[in-house]
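Why do we care about 3D structure at all? Because function follows from shape, and shape follows, mostly, from sequence. That is the central idea of this module. The next example makes it concrete: a single protein chain, its amino acid sequence, and then its structure expressed as tokens.
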Amino acid sequence: MRKLIVPFAIAAAAIATPALAQSASPFTGVRAEGIIGWDRVQNDGGKSGVAYGFGVGYDTQMSNLVVGLEGEFADSTTKTCARDFAVAGDRLCSRTGRDLYVGARVGTLLNENTLLYGKAGYTNARFKLAYDDGATGVDDFRVSDNYDGLRLGAGLEYAIGPNSFVKGEYRYSNYEAGFEKHQVVAGFGFRF
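And the structure:
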């Protein structure tokens, strides 16, 4: 019986500790959020659109320091087309696709409800290319490639209630093949 009580007590303490910590600190626990904002893609020129997506993470607050892990799935409306690219009447279009991110963040409390943080991590984005020679009105070919990259960012998060928050964030992503993204996003989320 004693062999069962000790592991049970350890497991109960591990489960109770985050629950107790969350009530004492607004920046501890699992979080889920939606984001939307400005997206600019650059590679020999640039084009802007709207970025949108959702993310999840887990943060731990230790006094005035907050550390956490996070992941995100996002997409964008950023698209550009060039006409008369190779022959009269043709069209070449490039578009961003889904963007996956996983990383960490570290922050400091400015007051009991406001967190200033920096973030860094791995990102993988899809970029699509389509060409129509203008003769058929149908794309002659479509290509889609995934590119690995590094994301750096900084932001402010404000706890608007015991389990909800808003945030503003700037992030820069640098991908293979010379692609870059600059984004300014706003987010709204909940802590569990």
